[in-house]
Amino acid sequence: MALCEAASGGCSLHWPRVLLFGDSITQFSFQQGGWGASLADRLVRKCDVLNRGFSGYNTRWAKIILPRIIRKGNSLDSPVAVTIFFGANDSALKDENPKQHIPLAEYVANLKSMVWYLQRAGVAGSRVVLITPPPLGEAAWEQECLLQGCRLNRLNSVVGEYAGACLQVAQDCGVDVLDLWTLMQKDTQDFSSYLSDGLHLSPKGNEFLFSHLWPLIEKKVSSLPLLLPYWRDVAEAKPELSLLGDGDH
């Protein structure tokens, strides 16, 4: 049911929202063919998909800014679904990238803190999806590092530890999780085609993520109606009768 408030001429529509919260893999997801763009397209006229991705961010910084993105006590701020997608930066090697690196135990604590904050803000655990970082293509990412004048600053085995920790948080908190790290390496397949530079997603990787995320999101938004009538259903003689209701169709 779309929320509305009385306004001159009818109800003011408040569209449901899906919030994507993460690092660069979320920030870039609205690019052409991106997983966030695909999600927005799938949900058009049902809800808004908000991109709150922050390139380079880790869970320490994310935990600090989350209350600025979703406020407590405001029902209109409460999303119908939230993805939390961090770990690609947290898992950076401390010696090579101390600014982004977050110790594994703190990563766990930060993820739990964000899930608990959402619950206190009125976002039930049933609306939350955690996403593990994808696997790291070390050879390709090392080339990117060398171009930036630094040594390889991430290892796939370490990323796997953070992915495993994310899975455990999801189990402990009772929320859904998409284990991207494992799925992309299933049956020891070559996952390099899923990555554009060893770290970020390629078009194929975006498609892969969306195909596995959509079933988790769909069950959270399946009851949402199409907002406002289909054009053929608008009353021709007096369209106000069709268009100034509560917006559901």
How would you explain this protein's 3D organization?
The protein has a single domain (17-223), classed as Rossmann fold (3-Layer(aba) Sandwich). Helix content is 38%, strand content 14%. The chain has 9 helices and 7 strands, in the order βββααβαβαβααβααα. It has helices at 24-27, 35-42, 59-69, 104-120, 138-147, 156-173, 180-183, 203-221, 240-243, and strands spanning 3-7, 10-14, 17-22, 48-53, 81-85, 128-131, 176-178. The strands form 2 sheets. The chain has a 5-stranded parallel beta sheet, sandwiched between helices. The radius of gyration is 20 Å and the shape is globular.
The gist of it:
Helix content is 38%, strand content 14%. The longest helix has 19 residues, at 203-221. It contains 9 helices and 7 strands.
How are the elements arranged and paired?
Elements: E1 3-7, E2 10-14, E3 17-22, H1 24-27, H2 35-42, E4 48-53, H3 59-69, E5 81-85, H4 104-120, E6 128-131, H5 138-147, H6 156-173, E7 176-178, H7 180-183, H8 203-221, H9 240-243
Parallel strand pairs: 3-4, 3-5, 5-6, 6-7
Antiparallel strand pairs: 1-2
Helix pairs in contact: 2-8, 3-4, 4-6
